[in-house]
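In this supplementary section we document a worked example of the pipeline. Step one takes a protein sequence of length 222 as its only input; no multiple sequence alignment statistics are reported here. Step two produces a three-dimensional model, which step three serialises into structure tokens for compact storage. The input and output of this example are shown verbatim.
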Amino acid sequence: MKHSIIGRMAAVAILCAALVLPAISHADFVVKDGGPLKHFGLKHLNPAPDAPVFVHTANYVDEDAEQPAKLLIISFWASWCKPCKKELPLLQKYYEKYKDQGLMVLAVSLDKDDDGIAGARAFAKEKGFSFPVLSDYRNLVARQYFDENVNLPAMLQIGPGGSILKAHNGYEEGFAQALEKDIRKALGLPDAVTAPKVEKKKKRKGKKAKRSAKKRRRGKKK
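The serialised model returned by step three reads:
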């Protein structure tokens, strides 16, 4: 009897502690760095006239990839997410800069309703994204990698063999520089770009300056 009372008191104490302690945020990715990518195909929201309706990750990071990439960046976002609207234009900038060196970008919208999907499509059109913007309206793909409470945007960096090089979520100060560093490393490029030295042209003396110089020389001779 005594043991049962103690057991109940312990259970109550644990329950009270659980109510007092703040909830733990499950914002970590399910897949750790170095884990394999689970290939998926999703519908295109901003297809070019000759582009396929569905886009599959195996086209870029697989042994039989039709368009092999050295680095595939997958960004999960939503039309209501303000930080996402900062990250995506940045990805467009880096995509244009490094696509010829082997960078590929996929943006996956997690909008569920028709208005959200329409908003994602409109945003992609407004910003002129040239990389595929896909729709995961059931969030089936997203759930394979991170908890539904994860802070968006959420990013996966995938290597040529389909391994996850890095998983990241959120958009903080200094992210742009860190991301470009990751991109250059994955593409086998130097860590920093050194600007070419520009030789300064010698200023030509004007006619007045030449005349005054001649006068000074004449004065010395006298």
